Amino acid sequence: MEPEVLLAQLRALFERTPDFEQYSPTSRDHMIWLGQGHALVARWNTLEAISFKLAMDHVPIDLLRDNNVAKIFGIIQRAIADLELQVPDSISTVFGAGEVYDIFRALNKVISSAEKSIFIIDPYLDDSVFDHYLTARKPEVSVRLLLTKKADELKPAVEKYISQYGPVLEVKKSRDVHDRVIFIDNYVCWVLGQSLKDAAKAKPTYLAPLSPDVIPAKLRDYEDIWAEANEI
Prior knowledge:
Radius of gyration: 19 Å
Number of strands: 8
CATH superfamily of the largest domain: Endonuclease Chain A
Strand content: 15-25%
Oligomer: single chain
Protein name: Phospholipase D-like domain-containing protein
Helix content: 40-55%
CATH topology of the largest domain: Endonuclease, Chain A
CATH class of the largest domain: Alpha Beta
Strand order of the largest sheet: 1-7-6-5-2-3-4-8
Organism: marine sediment metagenome
């Protein structure tokens, strides 16, 4: 996983840390958070991942919980600090006109980082999304596409995709779509300067992670639009 993608995911993970004062060994939220944290740390540093796993295994013990939660937080913060040194102060990436392969690679890294879900919002999305980007999707990852223009032209490709890969894809259209954003696993969000189909072809564009503290509100807005949108 590329440093800028891993950094965005770790920042988002830390932003949504569950309350460990409310911890119980059967808490699904805590188990998911710890599991995701270990997986991300393992992509950063294998030795630190071993320390993370040892601390995680001792969290269920009441007398040891606070100390081991502090160790886990420390490991995540070290990972974030180290990755911040590896990437520019702003991890937004600008692509010049004609740098279509560079943005193709960057977007595929974002798509391939998803473990559960991908939610792409793009008014001008076309069937190139299947050949250029969704080929990077892990088999178990579900996809939602929300667009505005030329939705009917996308329908044949949608039907063939579902026929081959199963019910992992949903597509809807809405007139309320204006941005171009990609939500990864519902807690990381990337903003794109142009439509995926035109990115960097004739004009410069950018790909930037949205700040973790505003992602929940942004996602809620698009979930509301999705709920009212029409299936194609």
